[in-house]
Amino acid sequence: MFARTKLVAALGAVALGILMGASTHANSDASKTTYLTFNRPVALPGVALGSGTYIFEVPDPTNAWDVVRVLSRDRKIVYYAGFTRRINRPAGMNHDQLILFAEAQPDVPTPIAAWWPNGESTGREFIYDKH
Fold it and tell me: 3-state SS of 42-96?
């Protein structure tokens, strides 16, 4: 009976450890998620986004920091999922600025060059084809 109590206590401790680890991982995911609203069409590599609110996130900041995903506000549609490059925030750039736009032709959605999650100093540069 005593061995069974020890086993139950050990399994409970393991389960608690797993739950605490999952909670910490969920918090780190949330810190790399940003809701961005655009009042005009914008572009990412291979996709144009209409005006509206989108979720920009690093889905796995621990193991896949180079991957960025862009979803609809309700998370039902994934518009973009791709590799990016790390980029440091340019000197003098305001930490409230989360997006850096690239130049575009008139009548073409403005490309997003880079995104800084929650105003961090290290952001993600989107990789466009050089055609």
Answer: EEECCEEECCEEEEEECCCCCCCCCEEEEEECCCCCEEEEEEEEEEECCCCCCCC
Contact 113, 101 (CB under 8 A): yes
Total-model pTM: 0.73
Residues β-bridged to residue 55: 35, 71
**CA atoms within a 13 Å half-sphere pointing along the CA-CB vector of 44:** 23
Confirm if 34 and 70 have CB atoms less than 8 A apart.
no
Query: Is 99 in a helix, a strand, or coil?
Result: strand
**Segments in the chain below pLDDT 70:** 1-31, 131
Q: Residues 59, 61, 66, 70: is their CA dihedral positive or negative?
A: positive
Could you tell me which residues come within 8 angstroms of residue 118 by beta carbon, excluding any fewer than 6 positions away? Answer: 31, 32, 34, 98
Spatial separation of the C-alpha atoms in residues 14 and 78, rounded to whole Å: 35
